Amino acid sequence: MNKKYQVVKGFRDIFPPESFLFWQAEKLAREIFARFGYAEILLPVLESQELFSRSIGADTDIVAKEMFVVPDKKGQNLVLRPEATASVVRAYVEGLAQKGSAKLFYYGPMFRYERPQKGRYRQFWQIGAEAIGYAGPGVDAELLLLLDLFFKDLGLKDISIRLNSLGCKICRPAYREALVKYLKSNESALCEECKRRLETNPLRVLDCKNEACKAVTKNAPSPSAFLCPDCATHFAGLRKLLDRQKLVYQLDDQLVRGLDYYTRTVFEFQAPTGLGAQNAVVGGGRYDDLVEELGGNPTPAIGFALGVERLALLLSEKISEAELLAGPEAFLVFSGEKAYAFAFKLLFALRAAGLFADMALDEPLRSLRSQLKLADKLKSKAALIVGEDELSGKIFNLKLLGSGKELKLDHETLQRVAKVDWEEMKSHLSQPGFVYAGKEYEQALVQNQGLLKLLKIYLHELERQEE
Ligand code: AMP
Protein backbone atom coordinates (compact mmCIF):
# COMPACT_ATOMS: atom_id res chain seq x y z
CA MET A 1 0.00 0.00 0.00
CA ASN A 2 1.18 3.52 -0.74
CA LYS A 3 1.71 6.09 1.98
CA LYS A 4 -1.45 7.73 3.36
CA TYR A 5 -1.40 11.43 4.05
CA GLN A 6 -2.83 13.18 7.07
CA VAL A 7 -4.27 16.61 7.50
CA VAL A 8 -1.78 19.07 9.05
CA LYS A 9 -1.95 19.35 12.86
CA GLY A 10 -4.49 21.92 14.05
CA PHE A 11 -6.13 21.98 10.60
CA ARG A 12 -9.34 20.14 9.77
CA ASP A 13 -11.39 18.83 6.92
CA ILE A 14 -14.97 19.92 7.42
CA PHE A 15 -17.12 17.05 6.22
CA PRO A 16 -20.85 16.95 5.60
CA PRO A 17 -23.08 17.31 7.56
CA GLU A 18 -20.94 19.80 9.54
CA SER A 19 -20.29 21.72 6.33
CA PHE A 20 -24.08 22.23 6.06
CA LEU A 21 -23.97 24.02 9.43
CA PHE A 22 -21.29 26.35 8.09
CA TRP A 23 -23.40 26.96 5.03
CA GLN A 24 -26.52 27.66 7.10
CA ALA A 25 -24.64 30.20 9.21
CA GLU A 26 -23.15 31.83 6.13
CA LYS A 27 -26.50 31.95 4.33
CA LEU A 28 -28.32 33.56 7.24
CA ALA A 29 -25.48 36.00 7.87
CA ARG A 30 -25.56 37.09 4.22
CA GLU A 31 -29.32 37.64 4.36
CA ILE A 32 -29.09 39.71 7.54
CA PHE A 33 -26.07 41.72 6.36
CA ALA A 34 -28.03 42.64 3.22
CA ARG A 35 -30.93 43.88 5.34
CA PHE A 36 -28.56 45.97 7.47
CA GLY A 37 -26.72 47.45 4.48
CA TYR A 38 -23.38 45.64 4.84
CA ALA A 39 -21.71 44.66 1.54
CA GLU A 40 -19.16 41.89 1.13
CA ILE A 41 -15.45 42.54 0.78
CA LEU A 42 -13.30 39.70 -0.56
CA LEU A 43 -9.82 39.90 0.93
CA PRO A 44 -6.51 38.16 0.28
CA VAL A 45 -5.39 35.50 2.76
CA LEU A 46 -1.77 36.73 2.68
CA GLU A 47 -0.79 40.10 4.11
CA SER A 48 2.46 41.73 5.19
CA GLN A 49 3.59 40.75 8.69
CA GLU A 50 3.97 44.37 9.66
CA LEU A 51 0.28 45.09 9.09
CA PHE A 52 -0.59 42.94 12.11
CA SER A 53 2.30 43.90 14.39
CA ARG A 54 1.34 47.57 13.83
CA SER A 55 -2.38 47.08 14.39
CA ILE A 56 -2.96 44.18 16.77
CA GLY A 57 0.14 45.04 18.79
CA ALA A 58 3.58 43.45 19.10
CA ASP A 59 2.91 42.18 22.62
CA THR A 60 -0.19 40.15 21.88
CA ASP A 61 -0.22 36.36 21.67
CA ILE A 62 -1.32 36.58 18.05
CA VAL A 63 1.65 38.63 16.91
CA ALA A 64 4.25 37.31 19.34
CA LYS A 65 3.54 33.58 18.96
CA GLU A 66 0.75 32.68 16.61
CA MET A 67 1.51 33.97 13.15
CA PHE A 68 2.04 31.63 10.22
CA VAL A 69 4.93 33.40 8.51
CA VAL A 70 5.48 32.80 4.80
CA PRO A 71 8.74 34.26 3.49
CA ASP A 72 8.34 35.37 -0.10
CA LYS A 73 11.05 35.07 -2.73
CA LYS A 74 12.30 38.62 -2.16
CA GLY A 75 12.95 38.01 1.52
CA GLN A 76 9.89 39.94 2.69
CA ASN A 77 7.83 38.29 5.41
CA LEU A 78 4.22 37.64 4.58
CA VAL A 79 1.73 36.03 6.97
CA LEU A 80 -1.45 34.02 6.68
CA ARG A 81 -3.91 36.52 8.13
CA PRO A 82 -4.70 35.82 11.82
CA GLU A 83 -7.81 38.04 11.65
CA ALA A 84 -9.43 40.34 9.11
CA THR A 85 -10.04 43.71 10.78
CA ALA A 86 -6.54 44.96 9.97
CA SER A 87 -6.95 43.68 6.40
CA VAL A 88 -10.29 45.45 5.98
CA VAL A 89 -8.79 48.70 7.28
CA ARG A 90 -5.78 48.33 4.97
CA ALA A 91 -8.15 47.74 2.04
CA TYR A 92 -10.36 50.65 3.09
CA VAL A 93 -7.42 53.07 3.22
CA GLU A 94 -6.16 51.78 -0.13
CA GLY A 95 -9.35 51.58 -2.10
CA LEU A 96 -12.43 52.99 -0.39
CA ALA A 97 -11.55 55.89 1.90
CA GLN A 98 -12.05 58.50 -0.84
CA LYS A 99 -15.70 57.45 -1.04
CA GLY A 100 -16.38 58.14 2.64
CA SER A 101 -17.87 55.69 5.12
CA ALA A 102 -18.30 51.97 4.41
CA LYS A 103 -20.23 49.08 5.94
CA LEU A 104 -18.50 45.84 4.99
CA PHE A 105 -18.66 42.15 5.85
CA TYR A 106 -16.34 39.23 5.14
CA TYR A 107 -16.39 35.45 5.43
CA GLY A 108 -13.28 33.32 5.30
CA PRO A 109 -10.52 31.37 7.03
CA MET A 110 -8.07 32.85 9.56
CA PHE A 111 -4.82 31.25 10.77
CA ARG A 112 -3.29 31.23 14.24
CA TYR A 113 -0.59 28.92 15.53
CA GLU A 114 -2.45 28.07 18.74
CA ARG A 115 -2.56 24.87 20.80
CA PRO A 116 -5.39 22.94 19.16
CA GLN A 117 -8.35 21.94 21.37
CA LYS A 118 -12.13 21.77 21.16
CA GLY A 119 -13.33 24.98 19.50
CA ARG A 120 -9.78 26.15 18.84
CA TYR A 121 -7.99 25.38 15.60
CA ARG A 122 -5.07 26.69 13.60
CA GLN A 123 -7.32 27.41 10.65
CA PHE A 124 -10.76 28.61 11.60
CA TRP A 125 -13.50 30.52 9.84
CA GLN A 126 -14.82 33.89 10.76
CA ILE A 127 -17.81 35.90 9.65
CA GLY A 128 -17.18 39.53 10.43
CA ALA A 129 -18.48 43.03 9.85
CA GLU A 130 -16.78 46.42 9.99
CA ALA A 131 -18.49 49.84 9.93
CA ILE A 132 -15.87 52.44 9.04
CA GLY A 133 -16.53 56.17 9.30
CA TYR A 134 -19.18 56.07 12.02
CA ALA A 135 -18.52 57.89 15.29
CA GLY A 136 -21.85 57.83 17.12
CA PRO A 137 -23.11 54.94 19.27
CA GLY A 138 -25.91 54.20 16.75
CA VAL A 139 -23.74 51.90 14.68
CA ASP A 140 -22.40 50.17 17.84
CA ALA A 141 -26.03 49.41 18.74
CA GLU A 142 -26.73 48.32 15.16
CA LEU A 143 -23.97 45.69 15.24
CA LEU A 144 -25.08 44.31 18.60
CA LEU A 145 -28.70 44.14 17.44
CA LEU A 146 -27.64 42.50 14.17
CA LEU A 147 -25.85 39.76 16.10
CA ASP A 148 -28.77 39.33 18.48
CA LEU A 149 -31.11 38.84 15.52
CA PHE A 150 -28.69 36.39 13.92
CA PHE A 151 -28.52 34.17 17.01
CA LYS A 152 -32.27 34.31 17.58
CA ASP A 153 -32.96 33.37 13.95
CA LEU A 154 -30.65 30.38 14.37
CA GLY A 155 -32.65 29.32 17.43
CA LEU A 156 -29.75 30.05 19.83
CA LYS A 157 -31.56 31.95 22.53
CA ASP A 158 -29.23 31.63 25.51
CA ILE A 159 -26.23 33.50 24.20
CA SER A 160 -25.21 36.24 26.61
CA ILE A 161 -23.69 39.60 25.75
CA ARG A 162 -20.86 41.20 27.74
CA LEU A 163 -20.22 44.89 27.21
CA ASN A 164 -17.61 47.39 28.36
CA SER A 165 -15.99 50.66 27.36
CA LEU A 166 -12.20 50.99 27.32
CA GLY A 167 -12.03 54.75 26.83
CA CYS A 168 -9.87 56.52 24.29
CA LYS A 169 -6.32 57.78 23.98
CA ILE A 170 -7.27 60.75 26.19
CA CYS A 171 -8.61 58.81 29.17
CA ARG A 172 -6.85 55.45 28.76
CA PRO A 173 -3.43 56.61 30.10
CA ALA A 174 -4.90 57.45 33.52
CA TYR A 175 -6.66 54.10 33.68
CA ARG A 176 -3.52 52.32 32.57
CA GLU A 177 -1.52 54.06 35.25
CA ALA A 178 -4.02 53.10 37.97
CA LEU A 179 -4.07 49.51 36.69
CA VAL A 180 -0.27 49.24 36.66
CA LYS A 181 -0.11 50.68 40.18
CA TYR A 182 -2.63 48.11 41.41
CA LEU A 183 -0.96 45.21 39.59
CA LYS A 184 2.50 46.19 40.85
CA SER A 185 1.23 46.08 44.41
CA ASN A 186 0.12 42.48 43.71
CA GLU A 187 2.99 41.52 41.41
CA SER A 188 4.20 38.53 43.43
CA ALA A 189 0.88 36.76 42.87
CA LEU A 190 0.99 37.12 39.08
CA CYS A 191 2.22 34.47 36.64
CA GLU A 192 5.58 35.01 34.91
CA GLU A 193 3.90 35.99 31.66
CA CYS A 194 1.82 38.66 33.39
CA LYS A 195 4.82 40.03 35.25
CA ARG A 196 6.29 40.66 31.81
CA ARG A 197 2.99 42.02 30.45
CA LEU A 198 2.94 44.53 33.31
CA GLU A 199 5.74 46.33 31.52
CA THR A 200 4.63 45.87 27.94
CA ASN A 201 0.83 45.58 27.82
CA PRO A 202 -0.78 45.69 31.28
CA LEU A 203 -4.36 45.49 29.96
CA ARG A 204 -3.60 41.99 28.72
CA VAL A 205 -3.18 40.84 32.34
CA LEU A 206 -6.98 41.12 32.62
CA ASP A 207 -7.30 38.50 29.86
CA CYS A 208 -5.07 35.94 31.62
CA LYS A 209 -6.75 32.60 32.32
CA ASN A 210 -4.39 31.71 35.19
CA GLU A 211 -6.43 31.33 38.42
CA ALA A 212 -3.95 33.29 40.57
CA CYS A 213 -3.97 36.18 38.08
CA LYS A 214 -7.76 36.05 37.91
CA ALA A 215 -7.93 36.38 41.70
CA VAL A 216 -5.79 39.51 41.49
CA THR A 217 -7.60 41.11 38.56
CA LYS A 218 -11.02 40.57 40.13
CA ASN A 219 -10.50 43.71 42.23
CA ALA A 220 -8.51 45.71 39.71
CA PRO A 221 -9.62 49.25 38.88
CA SER A 222 -12.14 49.34 36.05
CA PRO A 223 -11.82 51.42 32.88
CA SER A 224 -15.37 52.73 33.24
CA ALA A 225 -14.34 54.73 36.32
CA PHE A 226 -11.78 56.63 34.21
CA LEU A 227 -13.83 57.47 31.11
CA CYS A 228 -13.47 61.07 29.88
CA PRO A 229 -16.73 63.01 29.38
CA ASP A 230 -16.86 62.20 25.63
CA CYS A 231 -16.32 58.48 26.19
CA ALA A 232 -18.81 58.42 29.06
CA THR A 233 -21.42 60.15 26.88
CA HIS A 234 -20.76 57.70 24.03
CA PHE A 235 -21.14 54.68 26.31
CA ALA A 236 -24.28 56.09 27.96
CA GLY A 237 -25.69 56.78 24.47
CA LEU A 238 -25.08 53.20 23.42
CA ARG A 239 -26.67 51.80 26.56
CA LYS A 240 -29.71 53.99 26.10
CA LEU A 241 -30.20 52.72 22.55
CA LEU A 242 -29.80 49.09 23.62
CA ASP A 243 -32.14 49.52 26.58
CA ARG A 244 -34.75 51.08 24.33
CA GLN A 245 -34.54 48.01 22.10
CA LYS A 246 -34.78 45.84 25.24
CA LEU A 247 -31.54 44.09 24.41
CA VAL A 248 -30.29 42.20 27.45
CA TYR A 249 -26.55 42.55 28.15
CA GLN A 250 -24.18 42.47 31.10
CA LEU A 251 -21.70 45.18 31.88
CA ASP A 252 -18.31 43.60 32.44
CA ASP A 253 -15.54 45.77 33.82
CA GLN A 254 -12.94 43.11 33.21
CA LEU A 255 -13.64 42.74 29.52
CA VAL A 256 -10.69 44.28 27.66
CA ARG A 257 -10.26 41.99 24.60
CA GLY A 258 -6.76 40.95 23.69
CA LEU A 259 -5.84 43.31 20.88
CA ASP A 260 -4.21 46.75 21.05
CA TYR A 261 -6.41 48.58 18.60
CA TYR A 262 -9.64 48.62 20.62
CA THR A 263 -11.04 51.91 21.94
CA ARG A 264 -14.34 52.67 23.68
CA THR A 265 -16.99 49.96 23.11
CA VAL A 266 -15.88 46.32 23.41
CA PHE A 267 -18.18 43.32 23.53
CA GLU A 268 -18.33 39.54 23.48
CA PHE A 269 -21.15 37.09 22.81
CA GLN A 270 -20.79 33.98 24.94
CA ALA A 271 -22.36 30.55 24.87
CA PRO A 272 -23.44 29.13 28.25
CA THR A 273 -22.25 25.57 27.63
CA GLY A 274 -21.02 23.21 25.01
CA LEU A 275 -17.80 24.92 24.05
CA GLY A 276 -15.63 24.11 27.05
CA ALA A 277 -13.13 26.87 27.73
CA GLN A 278 -13.75 28.46 24.35
CA ASN A 279 -17.12 30.00 25.12
CA ALA A 280 -16.71 33.29 23.24
CA VAL A 281 -18.53 33.03 19.94
CA VAL A 282 -18.16 36.66 18.91
CA GLY A 283 -15.66 39.34 19.83
CA GLY A 284 -15.76 42.93 18.72
CA GLY A 285 -15.34 46.58 19.47
CA ARG A 286 -14.43 50.06 18.32
CA TYR A 287 -11.04 50.91 16.87
CA ASP A 288 -11.29 54.64 16.37
CA ASP A 289 -7.54 55.19 15.86
CA LEU A 290 -6.69 52.27 13.59
CA VAL A 291 -7.50 53.84 10.21
CA GLU A 292 -5.16 56.71 11.00
CA GLU A 293 -2.49 54.37 12.38
CA LEU A 294 -2.58 52.48 9.10
CA GLY A 295 -2.03 55.58 6.98
CA GLY A 296 -5.56 56.93 6.51
CA ASN A 297 -7.26 60.06 7.76
CA PRO A 298 -8.62 59.97 11.33
CA THR A 299 -11.74 57.80 10.90
CA PRO A 300 -13.75 56.14 13.68
CA ALA A 301 -14.79 52.52 13.17
CA ILE A 302 -16.23 49.43 14.84
CA GLY A 303 -16.52 45.75 13.97
CA PHE A 304 -16.89 42.17 15.16
CA ALA A 305 -15.74 38.67 14.27
CA LEU A 306 -17.83 35.56 14.80
CA GLY A 307 -16.18 32.13 15.03
CA VAL A 308 -17.99 29.75 12.71
CA GLU A 309 -16.56 26.52 14.22
CA ARG A 310 -17.89 27.48 17.64
CA LEU A 311 -21.23 28.43 16.17
CA ALA A 312 -21.40 25.12 14.29
CA LEU A 313 -20.68 23.27 17.55
CA LEU A 314 -23.62 25.03 19.19
CA LEU A 315 -25.89 24.38 16.23
CA SER A 316 -24.95 20.71 16.08
CA GLU A 317 -26.48 20.26 19.53
CA LYS A 318 -29.80 21.56 18.23
CA ILE A 319 -30.05 20.16 14.72
CA SER A 320 -29.97 16.45 14.00
CA GLU A 321 -28.01 14.94 11.14
CA ALA A 322 -31.27 13.82 9.53
CA GLU A 323 -32.51 17.41 9.39
CA LEU A 324 -29.28 18.55 7.81
CA LEU A 325 -28.96 15.90 5.15
CA ALA A 326 -32.23 16.11 3.27
CA GLY A 327 -32.71 13.08 1.02
CA PRO A 328 -33.77 13.12 -2.64
CA GLU A 329 -37.37 14.00 -3.39
CA ALA A 330 -37.42 11.14 -5.87
CA PHE A 331 -35.15 8.13 -6.24
CA LEU A 332 -35.57 6.40 -9.59
CA VAL A 333 -35.66 2.62 -9.39
CA PHE A 334 -35.46 0.74 -12.69
CA SER A 335 -35.50 -2.84 -13.84
CA GLY A 336 -33.70 -3.78 -17.02
CA GLU A 337 -31.55 -2.00 -19.59
CA LYS A 338 -34.37 -0.21 -21.35
CA ALA A 339 -35.77 1.16 -18.11
CA TYR A 340 -32.25 2.22 -17.10
CA ALA A 341 -31.94 4.30 -20.27
CA PHE A 342 -35.32 5.93 -19.66
CA ALA A 343 -34.64 6.55 -15.97
CA PHE A 344 -31.27 8.10 -16.82
CA LYS A 345 -32.96 10.60 -19.14
CA LEU A 346 -35.71 11.28 -16.64
CA LEU A 347 -33.13 11.82 -13.88
CA PHE A 348 -31.51 14.75 -15.66
CA ALA A 349 -34.84 16.20 -16.79
CA LEU A 350 -35.96 16.23 -13.13
CA ARG A 351 -32.70 17.77 -11.98
CA ALA A 352 -32.83 20.40 -14.72
CA ALA A 353 -36.32 21.30 -13.52
CA GLY A 354 -34.98 21.94 -10.03
CA LEU A 355 -35.86 18.70 -8.23
CA PHE A 356 -33.44 16.75 -6.06
CA ALA A 357 -33.51 13.40 -7.86
CA ASP A 358 -31.10 10.48 -7.73
CA MET A 359 -30.62 6.90 -8.88
CA ALA A 360 -28.03 4.14 -8.72
CA LEU A 361 -25.51 4.80 -11.46
CA ASP A 362 -23.06 2.01 -10.67
CA GLU A 363 -22.41 -0.89 -13.02
CA PRO A 364 -23.11 -3.73 -13.23
CA LEU A 365 -26.66 -2.48 -12.71
CA ARG A 366 -28.01 -3.07 -9.22
CA SER A 367 -30.94 -5.34 -8.51
CA LEU A 368 -34.31 -3.78 -7.65
CA ARG A 369 -33.84 -4.75 -4.02
CA SER A 370 -30.44 -3.17 -3.81
CA GLN A 371 -31.71 0.04 -5.45
CA LEU A 372 -34.55 0.29 -2.94
CA LYS A 373 -32.08 -0.23 -0.11
CA LEU A 374 -29.99 2.61 -1.45
CA ALA A 375 -33.08 4.83 -1.73
CA ASP A 376 -33.70 4.18 1.97
CA LYS A 377 -30.10 4.77 2.94
CA LEU A 378 -30.12 8.15 1.20
CA LYS A 379 -33.37 9.03 3.02
CA SER A 380 -35.25 9.49 -0.24
CA LYS A 381 -38.80 10.72 0.16
CA ALA A 382 -40.14 8.60 -2.70
CA ALA A 383 -39.04 5.83 -5.04
CA LEU A 384 -40.30 6.14 -8.59
CA ILE A 385 -40.53 2.70 -10.12
CA VAL A 386 -39.60 2.34 -13.77
CA GLY A 387 -40.34 -1.17 -15.05
CA GLU A 388 -41.92 -2.65 -18.16
CA ASP A 389 -45.49 -1.66 -17.30
CA GLU A 390 -44.42 1.84 -16.46
CA LEU A 391 -42.46 2.21 -19.69
CA SER A 392 -45.35 1.11 -21.79
CA GLY A 393 -47.43 3.80 -20.09
CA LYS A 394 -49.78 1.34 -18.40
CA ILE A 395 -49.08 2.57 -14.93
CA PHE A 396 -47.35 5.25 -12.88
CA ASN A 397 -45.96 3.83 -9.68
CA LEU A 398 -44.54 5.83 -6.81
CA LYS A 399 -43.64 4.45 -3.40
CA LEU A 400 -43.75 7.04 -0.64
CA LEU A 401 -40.89 5.77 1.50
CA GLY A 402 -41.87 7.53 4.71
CA SER A 403 -45.36 6.05 4.97
CA GLY A 404 -44.68 2.95 2.86
CA LYS A 405 -47.77 3.79 0.79
CA GLU A 406 -47.89 3.18 -2.92
CA LEU A 407 -49.44 5.61 -5.33
CA LYS A 408 -50.51 3.94 -8.54
CA LEU A 409 -52.16 5.78 -11.41
CA ASP A 410 -53.32 4.52 -14.76
CA HIS A 411 -52.17 6.44 -17.78
CA GLU A 412 -55.41 8.35 -18.21
CA THR A 413 -55.41 9.63 -14.63
CA LEU A 414 -51.75 10.48 -14.90
CA GLN A 415 -52.44 12.60 -17.97
CA ARG A 416 -55.31 14.36 -16.28
CA VAL A 417 -53.41 15.08 -13.08
CA ALA A 418 -50.25 16.20 -14.84
CA LYS A 419 -52.20 18.76 -16.79
CA VAL A 420 -53.49 20.42 -13.67
CA ASP A 421 -51.89 23.74 -12.97
CA TRP A 422 -50.83 24.08 -9.32
CA GLU A 423 -52.74 27.32 -8.72
CA GLU A 424 -55.75 25.99 -10.57
CA MET A 425 -55.59 22.74 -8.68
CA LYS A 426 -55.57 24.51 -5.33
CA SER A 427 -58.74 26.36 -6.28
CA HIS A 428 -60.35 23.13 -7.51
CA LEU A 429 -59.35 21.33 -4.35
CA SER A 430 -61.37 23.68 -2.26
CA GLN A 431 -64.48 22.79 -4.24
CA PRO A 432 -66.47 19.85 -2.99
CA GLY A 433 -66.59 16.83 -5.23
CA PHE A 434 -63.42 17.55 -7.19
CA VAL A 435 -61.78 14.21 -7.66
CA TYR A 436 -58.84 13.70 -9.95
CA ALA A 437 -57.18 10.76 -8.30
CA GLY A 438 -57.29 8.65 -5.17
CA LYS A 439 -57.57 10.32 -1.78
CA GLU A 440 -54.04 9.51 -0.71
CA TYR A 441 -52.69 10.89 -3.90
CA GLU A 442 -54.65 14.04 -3.52
CA GLN A 443 -53.14 14.58 -0.11
CA ALA A 444 -49.64 13.88 -1.29
CA LEU A 445 -50.03 16.34 -4.14
CA VAL A 446 -51.38 19.05 -1.93
CA GLN A 447 -48.45 18.65 0.40
CA ASN A 448 -45.88 18.36 -2.27
CA GLN A 449 -45.62 20.67 -5.21
CA GLY A 450 -42.42 18.88 -6.18
CA LEU A 451 -44.46 15.77 -6.77
CA LEU A 452 -46.70 17.55 -9.23
CA LYS A 453 -43.63 18.78 -11.09
CA LEU A 454 -42.32 15.23 -11.12
CA LEU A 455 -45.54 13.97 -12.64
CA LYS A 456 -45.46 16.53 -15.40
CA ILE A 457 -41.86 15.75 -16.31
CA TYR A 458 -42.43 12.02 -16.10
CA LEU A 459 -45.34 12.23 -18.49
CA HIS A 460 -43.42 14.49 -20.84
CA GLU A 461 -40.51 12.07 -20.99
CA LEU A 462 -42.87 9.13 -21.43
CA GLU A 463 -44.57 10.79 -24.36
CA ARG A 464 -41.26 11.78 -25.93
CA GLN A 465 -40.19 8.18 -25.66
CA GLU A 466 -43.27 7.13 -27.57
CA GLU A 467 -42.69 9.67 -30.34
P1 AMP B 1 -10.88 37.27 17.95
O1 AMP B 1 -10.53 37.56 16.50
O2 AMP B 1 -9.75 36.68 18.71
O3 AMP B 1 -11.57 38.42 18.61
O4 AMP B 1 -11.96 36.09 17.89
C1 AMP B 1 -13.25 36.26 17.44
C2 AMP B 1 -13.95 34.92 17.44
O5 AMP B 1 -13.28 34.03 16.54
C3 AMP B 1 -13.87 34.20 18.78
O6 AMP B 1 -14.90 34.61 19.61
C4 AMP B 1 -14.01 32.75 18.37
O7 AMP B 1 -15.37 32.44 18.17
C5 AMP B 1 -13.29 32.71 17.05
N1 AMP B 1 -11.92 32.21 17.18
C6 AMP B 1 -10.82 32.88 17.55
N2 AMP B 1 -9.73 32.08 17.57
C7 AMP B 1 -10.14 30.85 17.19
C8 AMP B 1 -9.50 29.58 16.98
N3 AMP B 1 -8.18 29.42 17.15
N4 AMP B 1 -10.27 28.54 16.59
C9 AMP B 1 -11.60 28.69 16.40
N5 AMP B 1 -12.25 29.84 16.56
C10 AMP B 1 -11.55 30.92 16.95
Question: How would you explain this protein's 3D organization?
Answer:
With 467 residues, this protein is of the alpha+beta class. The chain has two domains: 18-171 and 227-316, 2-Layer Sandwich (BirA Bifunctional Protein, domain 2), CATH 3.30.930.10; 326-466, Rossmann fold. The chain is 42% helix and 19% strand. It is built from 19 helices and 16 strands. The protein has helices at residues 18-36, 49-55, 61-65, 85-95, 137-153, 172-185, 192-200, 211-217, 229-244, 290-293, 308-316, 321-324, 337-352, 368-377, 388-391, 411-419, 422-429, 439-447, 449-466, and strands spanning 39-40, 46-48, 68-71, 77-80, 102-111, 123-132, 160-165, 250-251, 263-270, 280-286, 301-307, 330-334, 357-359, 382-386, 395-400, 406-410. The chain has an eight-stranded mixed β-sheet, sandwiched between helices. A five-stranded mixed β-sheet has the order 13-12-14-15-16, with helices on both faces. A three-stranded antiparallel β-sheet has the order 2-4-3. Strand 12, helix 13 (337-352) and strand 13 form a beta-alpha-beta unit. The longest helix is centred in the N-terminal third of the chain and has 19 residues, at 18-36. It is elongated and about 90 Å long. It binds adenosine monophosphate. The site of adenosine monophosphate has 16 residues, from strand 6, strand 10, strand 11 and helix 11.
